[in-house]
Amino acid sequence: MAGKEKMTAVVLAGGKSSRMGQNKMFLPLGGKPVISHLLEVLKQIFTECIVVTDEPALYQNYGVKVVQDIIVCREKNSLTGIHAGLFCAKYPYAFMLAGDMPFVQPRVLKYLCTFAADCDVVVPKEGKFYQPLCAIYHKNCLPFIEEQLVNGIFRIDRFFPKVRLCEVDVNELKTFDPKGYTFFNINTPEDYARACEIYQLIRPTQKFSG
């Protein structure tokens, strides 16, 4: 594998999930928790990794920087995590990933990184819908994110028109991830059962390609 991306990877770990009834980051897949699978991939690609969480003590032994939200809002939202990760990142660019996405494919992440140089946000898009929790953000976005949070606007893409935006059609990513496993996330017990099935399909037979 070529040298690592000089970019920070930020895992938005959150806390307990109401639909799962427990912290999704620590659901076991093949004997290891979800967070371990995700960090295993990210550490191969990125120079720095950060976990944003409201339960920092749980992540002290994973060899990554652990931070909490800087702007605290009454309503739980992902934008506060993006803000904290981007603010604390060592590098100008940060690749944000939801922590409940255990099957991110390295080649997808690296391909998205190729668009970053001239953009403030690089985000996959399928039809009208963005994947803002598998996307790259530049520190230039911080004032716009802070403005939204102060005003109680939590929809991530609301500030996109104010920055240099690069939309990447998800169809372009199928070359590296034909089944779209990168964007699979665990929200419910049914999703977790499916994740266990996917793990059995792809882990014993192949390594994630770099």
> Biggest sheet, open or closed, and with what strands and sense?
8 strands, mixed
Range of strand content:
15-25%
**Secondary-structure-derived class:** alpha/beta
Annotation, overall tally of beta strands: 10
Distance between the termini: 7 Å
Q: Cα-atom Rg, whole angstroms?
A: 16 Å
Q: Please, what is the CATH homologous superfamily?
A: Spore Coat Polysaccharide Biosynthesis Protein SpsA, Chain A
Known CATH architecture? Alpha-Beta Complex
SSE sequence, one letter per element: EEEHEEHEHEEEHEHH
Residue runs with pLDDT of under 50 for 5 or more positions: 204-210
The total number of structural domains is: 1
Instruction: Give the averaged pLDDT, no decimals.
Output: 92
Question: What would a concise description of this structure say?
Answer:
This protein has 210 residues and is an alpha/beta fold. Helix content is 27%, strand content 23%.
Topology readout:
Layout: E1 5-14, E2 28-29, E3 32-33, H1 34-45, E4 46-53, E5 65-67, H2 79-88, E6 93-98, H3 106-113, E7 121-126, E8 129-130, E9 134-138, H4 142-150, E10 165-169, H5 170-173, H6 189-202
Parallel strand pairs: 1-4, 1-6, 4-5, 7-10
Antiparallel strand pairs: 2-3, 6-9, 7-8, 7-9
Keywords for this structure?
210 residues; alpha/beta; eight-stranded mixed beta sheet; 6 helices; 23% strand; globular; disordered C terminus
Q: What features would you describe in this structure?
A:
This protein is an alpha/beta fold. The protein has a single domain, classed as Spore Coat Polysaccharide Biosynthesis Protein SpsA, Chain A, CATH 3.90.550.10. The chain contains six helices and ten strands. The strands form two sheets. Strands 1, 4, 5, 6, 7, 8, 9 and 10 form an eight-stranded mixed β-sheet that branches. Strand 7 and strand 8 (129-130) form a beta hairpin. The longest helix has 14 residues, at 189-202. The radius of gyration is 16 Å and the shape is globular.
